[in-house]
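[stage:ingest] chain + small molecule (adenosine monophosphate)
[stage:ingest] validated
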Amino acid sequence: MNSPDPLTGMRLRLSELVLDNSFARLPPAHYTRMQATPLPEPYLVCASESAAALIALDSEEFKQPQFTEIFSGNARLPGSMPLSAVYSGHQFGVWAGQLGDGRAILLGEATSPLEAQGSIELQLKGAGATPYSRMGDGRAVLRSSIREFLCSEAMAALGIPTSRALCVIGSDKRVMRETPETTAVVTRMSQSFVRFGSFEHWFHQDRKEELKTLADYVIAHSYPDLQDASDPYHALLSEVTRRTAVLVAHWQAVGFMHGVLNTDNMSILGQTLDYGPFGFMESYDPAHICNHTDQQGRYAYRMQPRICEWNCFALGQAMLPLIDDVDAVYDALSVFKIAYAEKMSALWNAKLGLHVNEAHDVALTEKLLEIMAASRVDFPVFFRRLSGLKQEDPSGDAPLRDLFIDRSAFDAWSVEYRQRLRMEQSQDEARRQAMNRVNPKYVLRNYLAQAAIDKAQQKDFSEVQRLLDILQHPFDEQEENAAYAALPPDWAAGIEVSCSS
Ligand code: AMP
Ligand code: MG
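[stage:predict] done
[stage:export] tokens:
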């Protein structure tokens, strides 16, 4: 493995990138060694410089034909040991048995120049059928690949734990979805792609040996600090639960809806994983369902925290044979409610520009969300504008109150808010700056992604690149891009995203 020097900022050529694959050292029951299916006439759609920096890869290399060949799955990096991993899971609350990897191939891991990051796995999504594909074709369409690519990078820039995306490689090869669509491959990056469903896979087959091997691997590879805990399995469950609670608090605070919170889409690292029919909250509605396929609203915005907790319980059940004590499992899972409440209140307070926590703050936030829901106020626009509120001068409130159908509801809330600001002697300018560091101006609204996809389907990738550039600095004003922060156009309401990708 190469070890780039973080101090010299050394950048690797593609030819210098050498992989290892620690997952491939697990017993073969955990995966199938296999090659990607070649992708005919691949072309680069877009690549992320900041993702490449995670493995010290020089972005100049994006232009090399070999880059496209490697990340379409047509050529191999030295040391790569491509494999497809096995996992199962609960879909929409129902045990579904073995699910994947239906279309992802793990190439191996590169060394990060940042010591704290350790190694980073490279995975091709949409690289062809695997032994675990069930009925699927193993491919991903350009539309969903661009969405995953842009959102992974946008979430990272928002400071939310997530898998990353190095690039999208397209091809004119078509596959059938609702209509025929062209295919693409996304290269994802994460320290690990192990899911809750990877554990459930062995639990539901009553194979304790494999379950233990997997848990030991995850602890050694991704949670080395837990090796010294009195019960490392309990410590693992507790830490994954804590991270998951923190993650979903981040989602709620930024208005991100995952769309398919099945247990196979839950990362063992507590990061956002598997971008499908996700959405960002626009007109605020806590019952909003972003996934057209989710008719019951199991994964609606307001359901996400309890669904994530439910998923942790599914992981807890799967780990029961290792922890061997139901009370200890419950004890580890009890971390969820505490961690979620703590993180959520800290994030709401930061969004409101409040420094100290007061008992009444939860009620102040709840009241705000209630009046926002009644007026279907645009979520990112409201919080961004709120930073401009003057504590002692309501005369400039129009940009805020005009977002409400019931303006008097905002006026009443703003009286309470101003009182609360006075209580901690808030300073307008300092608060404005602090709020603008946590309330993004730019989020990946569905219509923005759709506009970039429409152009990309005509082989014009400029809008994908432009969105990537904008979303990598979501908190900056970027005056020249203000149109990308505006309220969505009327046609945006008609966009539907579903599981089909
Ligand atoms: P998802 O809900 O998107 O995570 O998908 C559930 C499972 O179906 C995953 O394990 C995927 O690997 C698999 N899958 C999704 N799409 C395809 C496809 N086109 N071909 C094969 N497997 C797929
Ligand atoms: Mg998935």
